[in-house]
Amino acid sequence: MVQTQYNIVIAGSGKLAKAWFAFFRHHNAVAHIEVLSRSFKLNGFPKDAHLKYSLQHINSKSNLFIIAVSDRAVSKLAKTIYARFPKALVCHCSGTVLLSDLPQPLSHKMVVYPMYSFNGQSQTDWSQVPLFIEGLTTKNKKTIVQDLFANLHIYTCNSNERIRLHCAAVITHNFSNALLVWANSILPPKYQKHKVWYPLLHQWFTDLNSHLPKTLQTGPALRNDKTTIQKHIQLFSTQNSKVLYRKLTQLIQTQHEL
Ligand SMILES: NC(=O)c1ccc[n+]([C@@H]2O[C@H](COP(=O)([O-])OP(=O)(O)OC[C@H]3O[C@@H](n4cnc5c(N)ncnc54)[C@H](OP(=O)(O)O)[C@@H]3O)[C@@H](O)[C@H]2O)c1
Around Cβ 1, how many Cβ atoms within 10 Å? Predict the structure, then answer.
C-alpha cells in the first residue's frame, strides 16, 4: 500500500521528460504533477499538463523534482530548486552527472538513470526499462522505490558505475544506430526504403537472448578475408568512411585475437 503522496515536478520538456510524465500521470502515489519548462511550449505534452515556465509558479507543496534537462544544466537547476524547495527530494536522470553535483543533503537527492533510449517517437513500456538508482539513505531509498518504482527493474549503482553503464548504452544504441544510418546510405537507392537489413537485425536480437555477442560475430573481418575487405573499402568515396571501416574491421579482429 502506498503511504506517501507525491507532488511531482518534472523539469524539462524533452524526450525523457515526456516519458516520465506518461509514467507518473496516472500513478497511484502521485497526487499532483507539473512540468517545468523554460520554453513554455506544450511540445507534445497533453493539453491538460500543468506546464509552468518558472519555479515561482510551481506548487509550493511540491516534494519531488525529477530533473530531465540537458546534462550541462542539471547542477545549476538543482541549486535553484534547493534554494526554493529545501525539503524536496531532487532526482536527476543523467548517465554522467555526479550525485555530488546536486547540492541537496544525501537524504534529499537521488539519481534514477534509465538505461534506455527515449526517442520521443514511441510510447515507453516502463516494465522493460532498467533503472539504476544512486543516492538517498537506505531507509528512504526503500520507501521511494516501493512507492514509485514497484515492479520495475531496479538496480543500485554508484557514480563511477553509472558512467560505465551510460558509455555502454551509447555504444550499444547510439553507435549501432549511426552504423545503421551509414549502412542505409550505401545501399542501392532502390532498396533504401525497404529495410532490407531488418531480418539481419531481427535474427541477431533473437539470438542475443541466449548467446553472448562475441559468439554471434560473422563476416569478412572474422574470416580475415582481405579481398572482400578491400572491395568494400573501395566503395567509399570519403577517407573517413574508409578509415572507419578499417577501424571496425580491426576491432573485430582484436576481439577475436586474429
Ligand atoms: N533520451 C534518452 O534516451 C535518455 C536516456 C537516459 C537518460 N537521459 C537523460 O535525460 C536528460 C534529458 O535528456 P533528453 O534526451 O530528454 O533531452 P532533450 O530531449 O534534448 O531535452 C532536453 C530538455 O532540457 C531543457 N534544457 C536544456 N538546457 C536547459 C537549461 N539551461 N535550463 C533549463 N532547461 C534546459 C530543454 O529545454 P528547451 O526545449 O527549452 O531547450 C529540454 O526540455 C539528460 O540528463 C539525459 O542524460 C536521456
Answer: 5
